[in-house]
Amino acid sequence: MHPQALLEACAALLREVLRFEHPADAVVSRHFRAQRQFGPRERATLAETTYAVLRRKLLYERLARSGSGARERRLAILGFAGARGFLDGALSAQEKGWLHDCDAVAPQELFEPERHNLPAWLAERLKAQLGADFWPLAEGLLQPAPLDLRVNILKAKRPQTQAQLAQAAIESEETPYSPWGLRVRGKPAINRLELFTSGAIEVQDEGSQLLALLLDARRGEMVTDFCAGAGGKTLAIGASMRSTGRLYALDVSAHRLDALKPRLARSGLSNVHPAAIAHERDERIKRLAGKMDRVLVDAPCSGLGTLRRNPDLKWRQSPQSVQELTVKQQAILQSAARLVKPGGRLIYATCSLLAEENEAIAEAFGAQQRDFVPLPAGQVLADLKLQQAASLCAGGSDGQRYLRLWPHRHQTDGFFAAVWQRR
Ligand SMILES: C[S@@+](CC[C@H](N)C(=O)[O-])C[C@H]1O[C@@H](n2cnc3c(N)ncnc32)[C@H](O)[C@@H]1O
């Protein structure tokens, strides 16, 4: 495709995404379905340019105030994810001069928001929470996430899987914490590999794998994944139960549960029972009350821990949306807790960075529900012989109370989890 046509296509896609009416990944997929003319490399450039602009939106908007032509074209030039030589083929002499001037802007000439590229409300909260660690986090959130795979231990072993990937010219290394994980170099297409179609691997961030590990579901147990969605964690939990016992995968979104079905078929699991519920107090779940050995609440949240993958979320969330989510999170945790049997365990987790969706929810629950005794996440992970368990945790008097994963410290998405045992 001619550079000019590809640059204009990037600008057109940005025009749709920057309306923020729908999640960026959904807009990009719809765009590709409607516009069949793009090959795989062009699609990659279009998607990566869009994500680069979403990541550094404040910086690029500031630079785009100078220059000429349509705003989205200027943003696409600044975020262009292809080779500079190729881009040059699309630029006028004036645009080349402008881009050269933009490249020469030094960081000290920029205002803070143009360096961290976060909305003011979010930067303020993260600064209050993190202090000096705010800037390493902000920098970490501007990087694309690596591609992590989880080896399905029902079907494969990690070393052999790594060797098979190498045969397909895919380089990978073992993830540092999860015993199931492989971190792949680059972004190779995974879903046509025999390893993928046969269910030996799934794409899953190491942080998500750690949440499934933390649940420590055992063979033959009764387990509920209360907010199962498309089942990323369900599949990891089901495999850790060696496809025995019963694992209920509940969600209010039948659509998301539908996306679990093909993954379930590949996985070889026969212990998973997906069920759509109307809400967290649905009659259908009453009969499960007091019966579960393990309950995971992977609660709906702002998703701000996934900004490396979903940078549009920082522009789509707001203090009000976070406030509404915290109400829902409390209600779901309260209801899900009823399923836990005496001696059983409950986990509340999110992929948010914000204390109000995390520690605040866990502490409010602990204060109300004297029946549930906190278990230090660091201890649970150490008992599982997990590498460097203590470094993954924070909070409480010994700094081990909660699982607290950060992109800049652990190279995972941001995750939080609290664990309780019912008396
Ligand atoms: C963070 S996502 C779950 C991701 C999923 N566990 C995974 O690993 O792929 C949160 C899920 O909670 C679901 N949800 C929202 N409200 C709910 C409720 N009241 N009861 C159960 N699930 C709910 C959403 O539909 C969404 O799929």
From TrEMBL:
Thylakoid found in the keyword field: no
PROSITE patterns, per the entry: SAM_MT_RSMB_NOP
Location of the SAM-dependent MTase RsmB/NOP-type domain: 137-423
A Pfam short name: Methyltr_RsmB-F
Keywords: Methyltransferase, RNA-binding, S-adenosyl-L-methionine, Transferase
Active site: 351
Binding sites annotated in the UniProt record for S-adenosyl-L-methionine: 251, 298
One of the GO biological process terms: RNA methylation
Gene Ontology molecular functions: RNA binding; RNA methyltransferase activity
Keyword Transferase recorded: yes
CDD domains: AdoMet_MTases
InterPro entries, alphabetized: MeTrfase_RsmB-F_NOP2_cat, MeTrfase_RsmB-F_NOP2_dom, RCMT, RsmB-like_ferredoxin, SAM-dependent_MTases_sf
Family affiliation: Belongs to the class I-like SAM-binding methyltransferase superfamily. RsmB/NOP family.
Protein name stated in the entry: RsmB/NOP family class I SAM-dependent RNA methyltransferase
Species whose genome carries this gene: Comamonas flocculans
